[in-house]
Specification:
single chain; alpha/beta; Purple Acid Phosphatase, chain A, domain 2
Length: 258
């Protein structure tokens, strides 16, 4: 698979802008709606999703319809990949597999075709966007990779800033003269150094794994060269009820409440 560069990428590259980067919505319409409401109050020029828009939650069809309605570009996540690749689906555990089967039954043919059209990564605004590990790996978790491999990957990328998802945990990796530093991202705004390279892990909109109930996403401001981590409250009790009502394993409801 290869990255897809949009036809209007050249025009976008020089534009000073504020970009919202979302990831791992996981069929959680309540969380996604709250994030979109938050974005609407801010001066945001574009939105990009890092995939895993489906799975775990109860409303995959509604999430995809909203992505299309808002013209949000998305890369392919591993849950979308599992819909397309039967062999990869077999690597899912029984609970995640059951949730994805229920998700698939709830999606229209239009939404399944939408998933089939997603690419493994995007390159826009002088940044790279991929679900798992750059340059274009969908299934690998960055926190499982040896430091030397991450340094090697970052050193080879043409883009200085890459956004990834998949882990459901916010973090930033900074590379400066061959030295890699990593730290967690909490509720903050950080100034980045233009001389350094970064991988920014955006957390999860709809299925947290960091003990915070809020829906999370990142704002990249190319003018001020900053990133801001956004934590958005939403009705996670309703999202949990929807999961249980759909017959999806209740552990994916419980994680929303913890």
């Amino acid at each position: 698979m290869h990255c897809f560069a949009a036809d209007n990428q050249i025009r976008h590259m020089a534009v000073i802008m504020r970009l919202a980067v979302i990831s791992d919505i996981h069929s959680n319409l309540d969380a996604f709606t709250a994030v979109m409401d938050d974005i609407s109050k801010l001066k945001i020029d574009d939105i990009i999703s890092l995939g895993d828009n489906i799975g775990y939650g109860a409303q995959p069809e509604e999430v995809i319809k909203n992505l299309k309605h808002h013209r949000i570009s998305s890369v392919l996540g591993n849950h979308e990949l599992a819909i397309l690749d039967k062999n990869y689906f077999k690597t899912f555990g029984p609970f995640a597999g059951k949730a994805l089967k229920i998700n698939k039954k709830r999606m229209s043919n239009h939404s399944l075709r939408y998933i089939a059209g997603l690419q493994p990564c995007l390159v826009r605004y002088d940044c790279r966007f991929v679900h798992g590990l750059p340059p274009d790996t969908i299934t690998k978790y960055i926190f499982n990779e040896p430091e030397k491999r991450i340094i090697n990957i970052m050193s080879r990328l043409k883009q200085k800033i890459t956004f990834v998802g998949h882990t459901h945990q916010m973090a930033i990796y900074g590379l400066d003269h061959g030295v890699l530093k990593k730290k967690k991202l909490l509720k903050c705004r950080l100034s980045l150094a233009k001389s350094r390279r970064y991988i920014i892990n955006t957390g999860s909109v709809g299925q947290p794994r960091d003990s915070y109930n809020e829906a999370k996403y990142i704002i990249w401001d190319s003018d001020h060269y900053t990133i801001e981590s956004r934590f958005v409250p939403y009705d996670y009790h309703n999202a949990a009820r929807m999961i249980i009502k759909a017959g999806i394993p209740k552990q994916y409801a419980e994680v929303l409440r913890n």
